[in-house]
Write a structure and sequence with these properties.
- The protein is α/β, with parallel strands linked by helices and 267 residues long.
- 41% of the residues lie in helices and 13% in strands.
- The protein contains 13 helices and seven strands.
- A seven-stranded mixed beta sheet has the order 3-4-2-5-1-6-7, sandwiched between helices.
- β3 and β4 form a beta hairpin.
Length: 267
Amino acid sequence: MSPLGMAQQRTDARARAFAVANQKGGVGKTTTTVNLSACFAERGLRTLVVDLDPQANATTSLGLDPRGLDASIYEVLLQDIELEEIVEPTMIKGLHIAPSSLDLAGAEIELVPAFSRESQLRQAISRAVGEYDIIMIDCPPSLGLLTINGLCAADEVMVPIQTEYFALEGLTQLVQNIGMVQRSLNPGLELTKVVLTMYDARTNLSRDVAREVRAHYGDKVCWQVIPRTVRLSEAPSFGQPITLYDSLSKGATAYRALAKEVLRGTP
């Protein structure tokens, strides 16, 4: 059976949910969330992006203005609005987004007294069973309650790591937090994918960092790397994933190959 067929068979009852996380900013986290999701949808998988980052970069990268929304993931987490009430379609068939907004900036504080504060997103997603094959949760670059919500709602954690100096900085704390969530809140959670981003094959630095990351994380590291390209950097300003902005670019080719590799790991 093809990877697509296996994924669809697996997700008749429940989506395969990834939390895309790294507390370090500027590592290609949102770029990976948006473009990998577009590639999944391109392959026929019903895909949902959940934008948990108050900066709302995933939202704008998929063509939505967070200032013009009636409701966002903020209302889902704190006002008991159903997830499907805020989900918006994108320009790619089969790809939807639960958008973020500036209101989410205060959610870390507002969630503190909330009942089951760590599992608000998981509960919301559980009520959308059967709607999606893949859910990609774009976590903020922090280890606060929003990221904890993302980890509680996910089956797997995907960590983008840039192939630059200090690539592994702070990741020990992220791995510890994943372990804490696994022990206390989400026993099925696993760190399954590490994605090397901003890779420049011309430099010794990128090659050396890639080798170091593979030494630390072994077969969790995807073989497909994401190159540093101008087109990948430009695409968000046009509100498009790279597969629409420049379908034949190196970035689009890399993310399509990464999507294929990720789907090969579907049980």
